[in-house]
Amino acid sequence: MDLHDPPADTTPMTNTASPAPPFGRALCAMITPFTEAGALDLDGAQRLAERLVSRGCDGLVLSGTTGESPTTSDAEKAALVRAVREAVGDRASVVTGVGTSDTRHTIELTLQAEQAGADGALVVTPYYSRPPQDAVEAHFREVADASGLPLMLYDIPGRTGTRIEPETMIRLAEHPRVVAVKDCSYDFLGTQKVLSRTDLAYYAGCDEHNLALYAVGAAGCVSTVANVIPRHIRAVLDDFDAGDTARAARRQLRAVPLIESMMSAGLPGTVTAKALLAALDLPSGPVRPPLRPAGREATDGLLAAYRELATYEERTADERHLSA
């Protein structure tokens, strides 16, 4: 079962309020498919990447939170980049997670990503050790200096325990290879402060913020929910760019039940995305421990929210056809 939008227009979008997006606009935080035995499923990753790009994603973010980066090896991360790059070619950007709590290891992963063919590196704030802001800034500068890859900083203090404070972000924006931010800060004022004072390309990292952040000049989104509804996520941005902000808002709000069931119902987005993809017979596989799979009741709820959105899209597609 798939949402029946017409094929996505993959020409560049034109939100003139934002700087030119370095990695595209509609990015998917892609899950990492595994075999039933728990091994990396590169064939499944290629099939999923191809599906996402053909349905409107102009960028893929690998080995992030949704991609189970804490439980994949360095070699698996590199193999995933190579496989996805082979599958999508130059039709979409490929950004890969390299962040760890160790600056030296993060630099090693960044160099590995560059060699594997990534277009950019997603670098999360060092976690657990909770470094002060001067150390956070130094960490990102060392990583940015180490390779030729542009960086997307990943600000997600709810997981790392440390914020990239707005003033730190503003200073880091002066580095030529610090070009983007995946924003999971839940600080809308702080984000607007950085947007008003830098050319950083901000990407909403929380699906409920996709349209709101885009409306104040963000470059786009890095969406977990796009694993299952890539066309819908892309269409919200397209509608806004076309000047139909009311329709963009309707699309965003129609997705809220699915966003809530995937991202705010007590299970990690990795778990819910994989459960829903598996139910739709798409590449997914199990999650790696310590994560555990969604139960039957949770999966049924996800399917219900997905089907409700699919019904809405079918109905609106028919209405557009009749009025054409």
TrEMBL record:
GO biological process: diaminopimelate biosynthetic process; lysine biosynthetic process via diaminopimelate
InterPro entries according to UniProt: Aldolase_TIM, DapA, DapA-like, Schiff_base-form_aldolases_AS, Schiff_base-form_aldolases_CS
Region span, Disordered: 1-21
Record's subcellular location: Cytoplasm
Keyword flag Lyase: yes
Top-level taxon: Bacteria
EC number: 4.3.3.7
PROSITE patterns attached to this UniProt entry: DHDPS_1, DHDPS_2
Catalytic activity: L-aspartate 4-semialdehyde + pyruvate = (2S,4S)-4-hydroxy-2,3,4,5-tetrahydrodipicolinate + H2O + H(+)
Gene Ontology terms for molecular function: 4-hydroxy-tetrahydrodipicolinate synthase activity
Pfam families registered for this protein in UniProt: DHDPS (PF00701)
Pathway: Amino-acid biosynthesis; L-lysine biosynthesis via DAP pathway; (S)-tetrahydrodipicolinate from L-aspartate: step 3/4
Annotated active site: Y154 (proton donor/acceptor), K182 (schiff-base intermediate with substrate)
GO cellular component, one term: cytosol
Binding-site positions, pyruvate: T66, V222
Residues the UniProt record annotates as site (Part of a proton relay during catalysis): T65, Y128
Keywords: Amino-acid biosynthesis, Cytoplasm, Diaminopimelate biosynthesis, Lyase, Lysine biosynthesis, Schiff base
Function: Catalyzes the condensation of (S)-aspartate-beta-semialdehyde [(S)-ASA] and pyruvate to 4-hydroxy-tetrahydrodipicolinate (HTPA).
Family per record: Belongs to the DapA family.
Subunit structure: Homotetramer; dimer of dimers.
Name used for this protein in its record: 4-hydroxy-tetrahydrodipicolinate synthase
Organism: Streptomyces spinoverrucosus
Gene label: dapA1
